[in-house]
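Practice problem: predict the structure.
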Amino acid sequence: MNKTKVIATIGPSSSSKEVIQELIIQGMDVARINLSHANYDFCTDVMNKIADINEELESNVAVMLDLQGPGVRVGRFVSGRAYLKAGDRIRVYATNVLGDNTKFSVNYPGIIDDVKYHTVIKLDDGAITLTVIDKEVDYLLCEVMNDGVISDYKSFNAPGVVFRLPFLSEQDRRAVQFAHKMKADFLALSFVRSSDDVLEVNDLLIELGNDHLGIIAKIETESAVEEIDDILKVSDGIMIARGDLGVELPMERVPVIQKSIINKCHIAGKVSMVATEFLSSMESGIRPTRAEVSDVANAVMDGTDAVMLSGETTIGAYPIETLMMMEKIIGSSEEDINYLELLDTAMRTEKQDTTGVLAYSVAECANRLKCKAIVALTMSGYTARKMSRFRPGCPIIALSPNMETVKSLALHFGVVPVLVRDLSSFDVIMKEAVRVTRELVMVDSGDKIIITGGYPFQEVKHTNFMKVEEL
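Answer:
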């Protein structure tokens, strides 16, 4: 049972019920839908399928909706794509035109004013580079610097240029309302620039009366890297979106930034996730490169909570095989995680509250006694989140009668959230803990588990007991 969670993005290659079900069986913890490429009908269809499969399989896969954000994107092309050749000239319009190899549009009316002569433009996370050589009233004239294929709605970056866009467009406001209506579990905020952007979304959720949706701030810009400490304070988690980040900043800086943010999230007790191009060669091939395997392994050994698949599962030819390969790499890499170092880091930065101190004690005991599992009883998820921060070497089985709590724990390292119905007495709690552990973990006679939580359950607000149980 792997501890590092896997987010798989659902798209044309993976939207059938059969494929989604197999992704869940193979280990998908969170299904992501990117609203930059998906409409509400697609989202509704996928989310209904996931709800049905969760009920059929008694699984608890969560849903993350990724907002389009204030980023600039290209428009549509004839046949959905165009081949651009180095040395050719191409016009970039601020008004809507159907693109081809001579022209395309962007979704930002101020592009002509904001972009200067000789500005370097990067399309599709830097796959194609343009240089501005002239400006007219209604378009930029650019030279194509390298061959490549550009398709509908891909990213448009101009490093060093600040686009004057509000963080929450009307389209994104409607998307937040849609996420609320559909009872999604996480919102990923694209192109966050400061903590104010996150707070703007939080205020909207307060207006909607939604205290369930977890806010994930995507770090994709230089300003977000500079403001990471403040952004972290007001977010539930951080996604290191290496695609746009590697365009906005020199790509050689990205690995160091990735490690730094994972560490900051661990210290703050917030979830971290790493995204973009983990196994991109598997979009068209059955095997990853050795460099891609090393990339996944390094993120896991750094202690990230989750890794994410994007194009590999949305348009790739082998979505299921890719997820299986990701799980295989994670399983091998987790054997080399320095759990004691992560435990020590968390202990030295832990606030001295009852739940925190007891969570540390549970994690340390579980490691020393080589326990097969920690069973954490939780109403809000607080106990399980605390336990996850200490990175014990065994899985944390979080038992809760609250489905929203169960879904909210889908991204936390090592946590296996389970919905239970009856935790009415201490004897019932003990029996349920043993039963669920036997279902989820390979155990032998004499193996130990630790059961922890607050008792009387649903009456106390903090963790107040731990019990070592020999099976």
